[in-house]
Amino acid sequence: MDFLHSQLARIQHHLAFVAVDPIDWKFYVQGISWAVTLFESYLLLRQYPLYSKTEPPAALKAHISAAEFEKSQKYGKDKAKFALFSGLYKQLLDSVLIYVGFYAWAWEVAGLGMARFGYGPEYQITQSVGFVFLLFFLSSLPTIPLSVYSTFVLEEKYGFNKTTPALFVTDMLKGWVIGGVVLAPFLWAFLRIFNWAGDRFVPWLMMFILAFQLVMVIIYPMIIQPLFNKLSPLRQGDLRSRIESLASKLKFPLKHLYEIDGSKRSAHSNAYFFGLPWSKHIVIFDTLIEQSSAEEVEAVLAHELGHWYYLHPTKMLAVSQLHVFSIFALFPAFLHAPPLLTSFDFPKAVAAKPPTIVAFLLFQMILTPLEAFVSIAMHAISRHFEWEADRFACELQDMLPGEQEKMADMGDRLGRALITLHVKNLSTVWVDWMYSAYHHSHPTLTERLKALEAFQSARKAGAKRGL
Ligand SMILES: [Zn+2]
After folding, report:
1. Could you point out which of 64, 131, 185, 272 has its C-alpha 20 to 30 Å from the C-alpha of 176?
2. Annotated binding-site residue? 268
3. C-alpha distance from residue 173 to each of 27, 156, 177, 254, 297 (Å)
4. Which residues contact 250 (CB under 8 A, 6 or more apart)?
5. Is 447 annotated as contributing to ligand binding?
6. Where is this protein found (predicted)?
7. pLDDT along the chain (467 residues), means of 10
């Protein structure tokens, strides 16, 4: 641990020199965030012409009707136009907020609000919580029209929207209340730990964040999710017994098996699992059960169990901890850099002893370009995990002797389920490689079908050689 600290101190020392230079941070943040937005727009423009293709890829031709293909192309086109507009709109908004000194203003307003109740600036943590809420609330208001358009115009046009205006409003209000109830104590504890630990905050805050994530894993399904959706035990029948038997054969610690009323808001479909290592919950969307046969849904679950078998969620958690660690490790250099705050219009008195939360927020903005690369790497890892989980489903028959006959066609079933999922969700079929590398957490349907075929023929070739 001491070695770690001395290394960190060295890096921070070097960076402190960099940060003391009077860099115009505001100009830098404006420039770099526009660069990222323009790059994202460029990717959309690369992808856009593919929505005008009149034929699906050869591998999909047999599985998708001309009408379905045409509809998915139109849906893709509309979504791309919307993404282009909303990306530029949000960037313009951020840019204006930075330009007019919104962050300094919000800090001041939070301070004035506290002063009314007789709390001075010595209550920095309270002011920080007020500041974050003000920022969050005010900056989310201008994006409401975007969600309204996306839900009631775009999704509606293609028959996906099931949300009523009343549900939309209650969802938003609930979201704000829950955000407040969860975020305020989190922020408060985060800043308390930071103040208490001083320069040695990295391991303490990392432990705190890990603990918070674990608590959320427990609280989310028990308290938060039921506020939005109804989870009911999956009814008895073919599907339930298939999944229960699969889980028990793989020694998957299945605690609850739920069906969720996803159809309340949208016709898009899905399935997932979550929980602690010794107690897992599987959730299947009612839309998926409706759209696919029991044996196809079983294959989707076989894929999900592949994620569990290969510890994908744990590995992702480890990667995200590493990410948090690197952000924390770089942070102190910026914390002690007064030019950072003054260039964002904060008064000299505040900048001289920067409030942690403000410095952290500005620091995040400076990291924007780096975060774009992090997300490319995370997506690449996630696509590899998807590939691995698909292979798991195909090879399940070799892991469960005695089940060979029943599981022999798992790959085909998964392929059929994926096709149904894609077709019903009108997912994009033609994909630009650069757009996909940047945005996609899953391989494309064509890639997955090809891989499924390759897994199966590799299995058969192995069997023929007597392996
Ligand atoms: Zn998956």
Report:
1. 272
2. no
3. 35, 22, 6, 33, 34
4. 305, 309, 399, 400
5. no
6. Endoplasmic reticulum membrane
7. 58 54 80 94 96 90 90 95 97 94 93 88 88 91 95 93 93 91 93 90 93 88 86 93 93 93 77 87 91 93 95 93 91 77 85 86 88 93 96 90 82 93 88 93 91 89 65
31's tokens: 């420039």
Rounded CA-CA distance 22/340 in Å is 8
Active-site residue (options: 40, 390, 395, 432): 390
∠ CA(306), CA(247), CA(293), 5° rounding?
80
Q: Report which of 166, 163, 167, 137 is spatially closest to residue 150, judged by C-alpha positions.
A: 163
* Ligand-binding site membership of 303 (annotated): yes
- Annotated active-site residue 304? The verdict is yes
Same-domain status, 271 and 349: no
What's the structural domain count of the chain? Answer: 2
Q: How far apart are CA 88 and CA 90, in angstroms?
A: 6
Of 40, 296, 304, 447, which residue is the catalytic one? 304
Write down the pLDDT at residue 3: 55
- 311 and 444, same structural domain? yes
Q: Which domain holds residue 34?
A: 24-64+292-459
Q: List the one residue out of 421, 418, 423 whose CA is nearest residue 69.
A: 423
Query: What is the C-alpha separation between 332 and 9, in angstroms, rounded?
Result: 9
